[in-house]
């Protein structure tokens, strides 16, 4: 692909494609637990934080050039902070978006934050952007360049931290929105989708909202997001050429028999394993070993069916109204 032409300063043309695993699903569905289980395998190289790389690199090229004045005005603070005055007044050009990607790296570059710094440092990102803009044609509104930058960042991460035979593991739950793009761009990649009862997802959101602003979307917002994520996952699995590269993990099944579920994951990912190894990994990642957990914490109790006690009758009815079809289709019974 185009990343093989970027030049000596960022030469990645000699890299043999290495397996990639992307953990996706609605947030608060257990994706962190699944990630910690898989990361326990000695042949797995885990990206240390959620990168949100498709939202931060790919999505701006899809959406921002289409923003009219009213939309830009609604987001004026973020635009000024990340992109400057010119795109606010006159609309977005590719050069504005590239500057914004670099600025976003600086804004998010903290140990406790998600972001592109999970893959590359600022200097590497600048070099990669410069090389790709020189060597890759600016076609399809810059989307081809954006995809090549994403690939180049993963390659740079593997160059710096990986070893031959390792699998790179990345977890950003909302990458489920871009599942098709991921699988088309990376033929060596596979996706693990985590699915949990949407009503338990709502409970988890509501508890975390006490401390985290991003979780303050309410029960209605959480169940709508869950429904959308389920539908995105279904779209990927409907593609015959892609469906065999997606493995769905039910949170409830993982709670009931984590050893068996992890064995299935390792088999899907072509990772060798033995029973004692699986038992040790499951024990090390057990939620009971987490020191800080509970309401308001990133990790809660992880209970199955917690919604029966935590959600009101009105909230349960709302969940059934918004996503009842999806709940039933996935085998989750309606009502308390």
From TrEMBL:
InterPro entries the record matches: P-loop_NTPase
Keyword Transferase: yes
Gene3D superfamilies (UniProt xref): P-loop containing nucleotide triphosphate hydrolases
One family name in Pfam for this protein: Sulfotransfer_3
Organism taxonomic ancestry: Bacteria, Bacillati, Cyanobacteriota, Adonisia, Adonisia turfae
Organism per entry: Adonisia turfae CCMR0081
GO terms of molecular function: sulfotransferase activity
PANTHER family recorded: SULFOTRANSFERASE SULT
Protein name: Sulfotransferase
Coiled-coil region(s): none
Keywords assigned by UniProt, alphabetized: Transferase
